[in-house]
Amino acid sequence: MHDSLALATAKRLEFAVAAAKVAGAVVHRSFQDSDLRVETKVDRTVVTEADRSAERQLRTALTQDFPSDAIVGEEYGTTSGTSGWTWYLDPIDGTQAFVRGVPLFGTLIGAEYHGESRVGVIFLPALGEIVYASKGEGCFWQRGMHWDGAFGYSVVPTHRAQVSRVASMKDAMFCTTWMQSFVATEQVEVFGKLCEATGVFRGWGDCYGYALVATGRAEIMVDPQLNVWDAAPMLVILEEAGGRYTTFDGIPDIHAGSGVATNGKLHAATLRVIAKAAPHSK
To answer: The whole model's pTM is what?
Structure first.
């Protein structure tokens, strides 16, 4: 069973890395396009045809290669499956950055087997970076890829991704996506206390912040609100890079609606700051 699961995981990781680059190219073609049309959804988030085109491309490829796997995507909902595998797709994570011409957006792919996170990919098309991992096999990072618009992305060396060794909160960089999410969840004091506890705060958010933690360029990334397709790659990527990913309650779970990613050394301290400042702790 172990060997067959490892093989199935390896096949899905290979697929996910290749598929993320193809979907990322679909997205990249529309990046900084003056004719890009932006729509506001019912939940007040924004969407473009690039989101929809990329997710359709991913779903078509998944249906061909893994027809028995379930699919959950931001734009087209859930397709049931029978294999025990579930894919989570976010064609453009960081759509606000994308529509404003800022390159800090990404394509996210995650896969679970019977509820266990097995595969995760963060692809940053405009930056030419990809971070990916599979359970028990480590986390890897390719950077400096060039996109030529016709033949996709150039081949670059693969490096092992490792979190930083920073062990002091005062030396740590803390990132988050959206200040309003702290307001919406009545967690404003959490944000303030994390800023006080850490050395540097930067709003390098969405999937870019998690990629920074996994590759040792930041130590803490916190989001009070996350959909499962936002969180899906993060657990396996952070753990395989030597860090940790949990909810605000310290549970390693991509489904619970909040996310805390750290280099591991600072995880307990980060959770203590959150617990002391959170409304329910008073």
So the answer is: 0.95
